[in-house]
Amino acid sequence: MALKTSSRTDIAPFYVMEVMRAAAAREMAGSEVLHLEVGQPSTPAPEGARERAIAAIENEILGYTSALGMDALRERLSLHYQDWYGVKIGAERIAITMGASGAFTLAFLACFEAGDRVAVPSPGYPCYRNTLKALGVEAVEVPVGYDTRFQPSPSILDDVGPIDGVVVASPSNPTGTMLLPSELTELIRWCKERDVRFISDEIYHGITYGTSAPTAAAEWEEAVVVNSFSKYFSMTGWRLGWLVLPSDLVSPVERLAQNAFIAAASVSQHAALGAFESHSELEGNVERYGVNRTILLEGLPKAGISQLAPADGAFYIWAQVDHLCDDSQNLAQEWLEDLGIAVTPGIDFDPTEGHRFIRFSFAGSTREVEETVHKLTNWASEPSARRKR
Predict the structure, then answer these.
(1) Using one digit for the tens of pLDDT, what is the confidence trace for 76-127?
(2) What pTM does this model have?
(3) If pLDDT is split at 50, 70 and 90, which confidence band does 276 have?
(4) Dist CA 387 CA 99 (whole Å)
(5) Architecture category of domain 11-40+280-379 in CATH
(6) In degrees rounded to 5, what are phi and psi of residue 214?
(7) What are the distances in angstroms from CA 41 to CA 35, 179, 197, 227?
(8) C-alpha 318: how far from its chain's center?
(9) Assigned CATH for 47-276
């Protein structure tokens, strides 16, 4: 008889990891891969972060911090909200977490009971629904499309029945779309009127093109905001995020963090303080993303891929490819094997309609993006490219 395995493990895998394994195998065999599958910066942590980390390793004990994080970092994040958004957030409402992933786990545990219903956008980041499911919370997938720029709206939420919470990402992974300030206000008003928890994923703030992303923290003190040092600050492997919490959730999150994580890595917290000293370096990364974004937005239509979500922020293009294939996983495999281009099939982000889409990440080098457009344009001119896979 096999020993028992928890039903909480019955969640979907992250399919992009299969793409990454196949890409790595191709590289090990000596072939080039153009990496447009990975949703992380291709740059190291900024210089200020690296310097602070080295100094901390040489001079600090680096033991446990408070479960809510170092006071100095919480205070620096409070200043960050004043500088970026003009909003006063007390340091006592900020919790430092083990990445945004840890932040979501703590937020979901603190906000919802097993059996609650929480609306999540589809397409959307798969870990929302998978983490909720593992916690016994029903993830209510809310289909969003071109008509609402791949963002939820009050009228869409009206159709999903009673819910206890809603998760919104702006800019979004995988679509890169953002909520306008008026749209964010309307969504929050809808939640206020129905006593629905509003959880705002703001991990891609700072990576926008033309218009800055508004924060839910400026709209409603009861909103739960999730952010991270991974994307704008280019510190994915340092596993450091934060929560902005309503006052009544600070103590519950602290107790959960004490028991689940003890504390985020202290060396990463020291490094994060230095990241704020590297603004010009980080803005240079965003400028490169902007160049790469333009190359794809102008180049993909020449390769016959013209149905694209508005890429307001983050570093993704969400492209409709169902005129080229019946299953974007097959198309992604073909592009990797024949062209050396690694992309993410949409099934990760939308279990129902994702087979019609592919996500391009433009977080890498401009050379990779230019070469991808060149190869796809040549591929599109071949007769075989016009046959559905």
Answers:
(1) 999 999 999 999 999 999 999 999 999 999 999 999 999 999 999 999 999 9
(2) 0.95
(3) very high
(4) 43
(5) Alpha-Beta Complex (3.90)
(6) -75, 150
(7) 11, 23, 31, 16
(8) 14
(9) 3.40.640.10
